[in-house]
Amino acid sequence: MQQHGGATAALIYVLVIGAIVYFRLLRPVRLRASRLWTGPLLLCAVTGFLVWESFEQNVSFALIASAVVIGIVLGFPLGLLRGRHTKVQPTGEPGVLVVQPAIIPLAIWGIAFLARFAVRYFLPHAGPVALAASDGAIAFALGSIIGARFVIAQRFRELGAG
Question: What are 138-147's pLDDT values in tens digits?
Answer without folding.
Answer: 899 889 989 9
